Amino acid sequence: MRIAVVGVTGMVGGVMLQVLKERNLNITELIPVASARSVGKQIDFDGKTYSVVSMEDGVKAQPDIAIFSAGGSTSKEWAPKFAEVGTFVIDNSSAWRMDKDKPLTVPEINANQLTSTDKIIANPNCSTIQMVVALNPIHKKYGIKRLVISTYQSVSGTGVAAVRQMNDERAGKKAEMVYPHPIDQNCLPHGGDFNEDGYTTEELKLLNETRKILKDDSIQVTATVVRVPVQGGHSESVNIETRQPFELDEVIKLLEKTDGVTVQNNHSKNEYPMPLYAHHKDDVFVGRIRRDFSIENGLNMWIVSDNLRKGAATNAVQIAEYLIKNEIVQTK
């Protein structure tokens, strides 16, 4: 299998290489691709050294699968060019997520809907992925009527420059400002760009992507996105109103049986999900599971996952694994 990683020199690109190695895909040729300023750089993968190639050369190589993490504008320009030569593109940007003709895929939920005609496959937003993995079994059994979401998102979701800002501030150095305010010892209720209605683009992703993945436009969603001085993962407080009544023990058992979910819900031992311990792991961790007594059929959960792994790289590689295992992609 010939696999290209586009945006290979970026933060997520590096994690993609790590996940590809860990999951032992049968890669016969790795094609590292990046922007012009990175062409010629050397990267190491699985004991070999590779030279980074340009987008044009990446297309000419006609890889079987190209995993993109190079930004929305780059994906809009180059994903169709890869697709035209027969490559399956798995894109980690927001470019294609809400395109009605492109699948928005979380393998545990809807990979079985992929076909050989799906040449461009969208990877959802990191905060959406971890949430819907936990919500999907609940929605299937009880139906979800409404979601109230508050996220506590790692600076790594903004990129390497944001991590540098936090670390410089923490070290007492003059920091190059990625955020409009200091982030160390602070919380910024600001993710993405503000719209005229006061909501941000990151908040709207939670609304629109959740509805598309769960295939239910009737779900009411409101969200507040907060950036916090954490490097290792995203956390979410999710309040759920279901359409059908539930028993709390049944919900917990349902989550315990869900692929990709680890339940940490032992209050007496102070066991609950935390980004410090989700870091470098692929599962979605769920805890603080309790009934919301203020409304009928109300449920509270705390959901944590490593945003660079399951929230980005791991989800993309799992899509590639599905394409290969089910022979949707054929080697050239």
Could you please describe the fold and organization of this structure?
There is one protein chain. The protein has ten helices and 13 strands. A six-stranded mixed β-sheet has the order 9-8-10-13-12-11. Helix 1 crosses helix 10 and helix 5 crosses helix 10. The mean pLDDT is 97. The chain is globular and about 60 Å long. The longest helix is centred in the middle third of the chain and has 17 residues. The chain folds into two domains: 137 residues, NAD(P)-binding Rossmann-like Domain (Rossmann fold, 3-Layer(aba) Sandwich), CATH 3.40.50; 181 residues, Dihydrodipicolinate Reductase, domain 2 (2-Layer Sandwich), CATH 3.30.360. The protein is of the alpha/beta class.
Largest sheet: 6 strands, mixed
Instruction: Report the CATH topology name of the largest domain.
Output: Dihydrodipicolinate Reductase, domain 2
- List unreliable stretches of 5+ residues: none
Beta-strand percentage?
15-25%
Element pattern in H and E: EHEEEHEHEHEHEHHEEHEHEEH
